Amino acid sequence: MLKLEHIGITFNPHTPDENNALKDIDLNINKGDFITVIGSNGAGKSTLYNVIAGTLQPTKGRILLDREENGNAKDITKDAEYKRARYIGRIFQNPLLGTAGKMSLEDNMMICSKKGNKGLRISLNNKMRAHFREQLAMLNMGLEDRLGDNVDQFSGGQRQALTLLMAVMSKPDLLLLDEHTAALDPTNADIVMQLTLRFAQEYGLTVMMVTHNMQHALDYGNRLLMMDKGDIIVDIDAEKKKNLTIENLVTLFHSIKDANDGLLLQ
Q1: Confidence grade of residue 266 (pLDDT, cut at 50, 70, 90)
Q2: In b/e form, how buried is each residue of 129-159, taking b as 16+ CB within 10 angstroms?
Q3: 0.85 exceeded by the pTM?
Q4: How many Cα atoms within 13 Å fall on the side-chain side of residue 49?
C-alpha cells in the first residue's frame, strides 16, 4: 500500500555536524499491516515518520502510495504534509496535540468529519450529533454526553482516546502512532491501547506504531521493525514474532549492532 524506495535524509550536509538520519531505507507497508517500530533514541524512528507524513522531504529516494485495486501507485514524495493528511493520520505522544482544546467536542468532531473536503459549510444537525454520540459511546468514557464541552476540560487519557477515534473516523489509508500512550498513566495507556487494537481490527486499519515498550512491540501487530542509526536492521514477520521474548530482541539487537560496528572498523 505504501512503498519507500532508497529513502535517505541528511541533516547539515557538508558540515562538521552532518547527520545521515536515514540511510537508504527500503520498506513495503502492506494494506492491513500493524507494524510496531522500536529502536533507541536517535535511531531514526521519528525521522522516518516525518518523511512518511510529509513533514520532512527526503534527500533521496521516493515514496509511492497505492490506493487503487488495479495497483497504480502514485508518487507522493513531493506532496506537502497537508495533502498527505487526507490519507495519512498521525497521533503524537502529547495528548494535547490531536484536538483543539478551546473548541467544543462536537466542533472537533465536525472538523474531523470534513477532513479533506473544502470548507465547513455543512452545519451541525441532530442527525450528525446522533452519529457523534454513537461513535463516542465506543470509548466508554461518557463523552457522548459532553458534546458541548470544550475539549480542554477533558483528561489526557480522554483526549488521546478522542484523538484516536477522530483519526479512525477520517478513514486514513495509514495511521502513524508515535508513542501515543507514553504520556499517559498505566490505566489510561491500557485503555488507549485496547481501543487501538479494537479499531485496527474492526476497521481493517493499516498501522505503524513507534513504542519504547518492548512488550507492546511483541504483543501487538503482525510485524516488528527494529531501527538503529538510520537503518531498519530487522523486519520480523508474525510467525517469527510470536515466539520472541524481550531477551531475544535485546540479544538480536546487540548481535547485529556489534556485527555492523565490526564492519565499520574494517
Answers
A1: very low
A2: beebeebbebbebebbebbeebbeebeebbb
A3: yes
A4: 22
